[in-house]
Amino acid sequence: MHRLARFYVKNRRDGSRLLSTALVICAAGLIRIDLPIGQAVALGAGLVSAYWWHCYRQLQQ
């Protein structure tokens, strides 16, 4: 079994909250994609979302 990163939670309820928060932040960045800060926020939150989705899928409970 893979070990999850220390900064990720160990249950699906809290994991889904983290994931949805990162997706909302990514959407906010996509709204202002015309600005460099919007691009940076969208990229950063998108990468965090992808990583947290990977961690979320590994949770059993």
The tally of strands reads 0
- Model regions low in confidence, pLDDT < 50 over at least 5 residues: none
Give the count of helical stretches: 2
Q: What is the assembly state of the chains in this entry? A: single chain
| Secondary-structure class | mainly alpha
Question: What is the H/E string?
Answer: HH
Strand content: under 5%
- N/C terminus separation: 14 Å
Largest sheet: none
Mean pLDDT, to the nearest integer, reads 89
Radius of gyration: 13 Å
> What spatial form do the alpha-carbon principal axes imply?
elongated
How much helicity do the residues have? over 70%
Can you tell me about this structure?
By secondary structure, the chain is an all-alpha fold. Helices cover 70% and strands 0% of the residues. It is built from 2 helices and no strands. Helix 1 (12-31) runs antiparallel to helix 2 (36-58). The model has no long low-confidence stretch (mean pLDDT 89).
Brief overview:
The protein has 61 residues and is mostly helical. It has helices at residues 12-31, 36-58.
Structural topology:
Elements: H1 12-31, H2 36-58
Helix pairs in contact: 1-2
Keywords, please?
61 residues; mainly alpha; 2 helices; elongated
